[in-house]
């Protein structure tokens, strides 16, 4: 059936682009690494017999025609970018797995009613511009010119980065797809958690994806002399921020379902003998229930207000993104269950704690996701690993699911 060796070879080959000394990869949007990765994946798409094109927001797309020229297209694939020093499976498995399925269908001369397209989504992680799912936002028309003003750590805006790589920021609208033209989006991905491992299963069928709230908090205190300012007369922005980080952990823990993370912290002026005057930190907050997430957010900010008053500092909050939870369509969960039966693979149904492009796609079509077991649940880390057998199992399930959704003809 599918060619496991080819899949593995491509995973490892793509995993060399953006490779760091740690063994992990850093492949951010609109960089040379991103370009090299797309060029390589375009070759794989051609080898698979797909028609290859790139859209106005930098998504690479491979298309396989169906027998009915008027039938809506079934979309699949995953993202091509990575976080800082991430693993080689996050995104790559769903992308290369989808190409593998279409290459196999071509080799088997199987025809489907609906065309199928594989998307290599641009910038799902949002690691460079603190704004995720850029490519899929472009597909559904959820990108504004204001979004292109988001800047990376070197002060380069999305628009500037696009131009440097030969894209025209004025044309982002051309990446839009109409709702009527798309039947479904289905994504294969590593689980990035420990549930499947704990169940001793290689395959998960995703019931839905948690919400995602990203904020930038700036705490303003007063910089001062570290030797000459008594402890009682300080407005130390870092000590206030440290207390806020504790609040984030405590409030998230209190629900039993919420997860919240402060992943980035910037202390200014950053001198050994200067009391910190300004601290910026990011907050990532998620829950399967929007209601619970909102409640935790309110509680956190109530506590932040108290800390500001107690310590004589002020706080400014910028919303980077607020993405609601995305349910997976029941019909796809059923299609994926049937695919597991056809592949003779037991499965477990679970929600996704990680964000995915499907959270954008859900706005224009029904979505489905298939998970593959992650070793020790590790992800966003160079040690991320899923066994070749598990990866192949996931691709098999994707194969049968796609045949069902795109309707096998012969
Ligand atoms: C992406 O992997 C995310 O969940 O942030
Ligand atoms: Mn990721
Ligand atoms: Mn991912």
Describe this structure in words.
Strand 3, helix 3 and strand 4 form a beta-alpha-beta unit. The chain has helices at 4-14, 32-47, 92-107, 134-140, 158-164, 195-199, 237-255, 290-311, 330-342, 358-361, 388-406; strands at 51-54, 60-64, 73-79, 116-121, 182-190, 203-209, 212-220, 224-225, 259-261, 265-268, 274-275, 278-286, 314-323, 326-327, 347-352, 367-372. Strands 1, 2, 3, 4, 5, 6, 14, 15 and 16 form a 9-stranded mixed beta sheet that branches. The longest helix has 22 residues, at 290-311. Helix 1 runs antiparallel to helix 3, helix 7 (237-255) packs antiparallel against helix 8 and helix 9 (330-342) packs across helix 11 (388-406). 34% of the residues lie in helices and 22% in strands. Glyoxylic acid (GLV) binds at residues 125, 354-355.
Describe, in short, the structure shown.
With 410 residues, the protein is α+β, with helices and mostly antiparallel strands. It has helices spanning 4-14, 32-47, 92-107, 134-140, 158-164, 195-199, 237-255, 290-311, 330-342, 358-361, 388-406, and strands at 51-54, 60-64, 73-79, 116-121, 182-190, 203-209, 212-220, 224-225, 259-261, 265-268, 274-275, 278-286, 314-323, 326-327, 347-352, 367-372. The strands form three sheets. Strands 1, 2, 3, 4, 5, 6, 14, 15 and 16 form a nine-stranded mixed sheet that branches. Strands 7, 9, 10, 12 and 13 form a five-stranded antiparallel sheet that branches.
